Amino acid sequence: MTTHNEQDWLKHRKNFKDSLSVDLLFEGIRRGDIPLLSSAITLVESSVESDQDKAGDLIEKCLPFTGKSIRIGITGVPGVGKSTFIESLGVQLISQGYKVAVLSIDPSSELHHGSILGDKTRMNTLASSSSAYIRPTASGNSLGGVAQRTRESILLCEAAGFDVILIETVGVGQSETAVHALTDFFLLLMLPVAGDELQGIKRGIMELADAVVITKSDEMPEKAKLAIQTYQMALHLFPAKESTWTPKVLSSSMYDVKSVESVWKVIADFEMQIKQTGYFEVRRKEQALFWMKESVREMLWKQLLKQETDFIQKIQSEVSDGKISPYKASKMVYTKLIEKK
Ligand code: GDP
């Protein structure tokens, strides 16, 4: 039950949210106003239909001012050193005049009502800089939904003038594939243990990496060297990338600024290469189309669930009980959809 104070606060918050017009948010974002950028991202994350319409208008308005950043996905198991690395890279970039946004996707927050990414005090120096913006994604959304909203948050950050966008995700779930489809460069952080032990990172995630960084090389320098060799060999076995980029393997340490600089150099080289070959543009266009299709799929599914709740529930339980194949079930759902027209 909510108390009087809470009710007042919720009402006040709702009034405040409603008072923010698309124009006001747009102008705020273009000025680089962080509180208004945050409100805009909250709007994008909202599941209320009127908020979604407003968010759609806002994104539309921002679109001409987007696309100029480099979008970097960073993943690795909890404890590998993601926040330490992002803090160190972010601080370096800011000192070079960049504006850095960090968007964190934490799938655990929806599954376990807890958060792997958010529980600790993270990235203190970066968080206190006026050239940085750190934002965890709201929990409780479907993976597709989170990805869609993260994509829109990226656009808002770009319109607000951020030129490096780091999308952080915990390398334990399926969110990596989505993050890969949202970013230009995909960075995988690994602990300095080589051999068969892939630290819970699936092969598929390794295959996505444009660079693997072995963290904490100060603790185990010999193991880090060995890990570099092992991952270099492992990456070699994957098919060549469409970008024609050869993935790099490096090591880093929080005590060695130069090691983090080297990772940035690799990212900068990658950006230069794919811009020269034209792949940068091609991939961004492909990604935009991919997300449009995903979004249509999600809308149709939601609509079906709403209109044909009983039918969908029945067919879902038949599929999970193995009574009917997923393909046959999808044909039946499809037929239902067509019949409606
Ligand atoms: P995350 O969960 O992946 O974000 O990992 P954190 O950045 O929070 O790091 C987990 C722990 O590893 C922290 O205690 C860090 O201080 C430590 N750590 C991170 N990077 C390094 C490093 O380069 N060297 C050493 N020795 N410790 C590190």
Number of distinct beta strands: 7
Q: How many domain modules?
A: 3
CATH class of the largest domain: Alpha Beta
Task: Write down the overall geometry.
Answer: globular
The CATH level-2 architecture of the largest domain is identified as 3-Layer(aba) Sandwich
The strand line-up of the biggest sheet is 3-2-4-1-5-6-7
Supply database-style keywords:
3 domains, Single alpha-helices involved in coiled-coils or other helix-helix interfaces, globular, Rossmann fold, seven-stranded parallel beta sheet
Could you outline the blueprint of secondary structure elements for this entry?
Elements: H1 4-19, H2 22-31, H3 34-45, H4 49-62, E1 70-76, H5 82-95, E2 100-105, H6 108-111, H7 124-127, E3 132-136, H8 143-159, E4 164-170, H9 175-180, E5 185-190, H10 203-208, E6 211-214, H11 221-236, E7 248-251, H12 257-277, H13 279-307, H14 309-320, H15 326-339
Parallel strand pairs: 1-4, 1-5, 2-3, 2-4, 5-6, 6-7
Residues 76, 78-84, 215-216, 218-219, 253-254 line the site of guanosine-5'-diphosphate.
Tell me what the structure shows.
This protein is of the alpha/beta class and about 350 residues long. Helix 10 (about 205-210) links the parallel strand 5 (about 185-190) and strand 6 (about 210-215). It has a 7-stranded parallel beta sheet with strand order 3-2-4-1-5-6-7, with helices on both faces. The protein folds into 3 domains: about 5-65, Single alpha-helices involved in coiled-coils or other helix-helix interfaces; about 65-275, P-loop containing nucleotide triphosphate hydrolases (Rossmann fold, 3-Layer(aba) Sandwich), CATH 3.40.50.300; about 285-340, no CATH class. Helices cover about 55% and strands about 10% of the residues. The chain is built from 15 helices and 7 strands. The model has no long low-confidence stretch (mean pLDDT about 85). The radius of gyration is 22 Å and the shape is globular. The longest helix has 29 residues, at about 280-305. The site of guanosine-5'-diphosphate (GDP) has 14 residues, from helix 5.
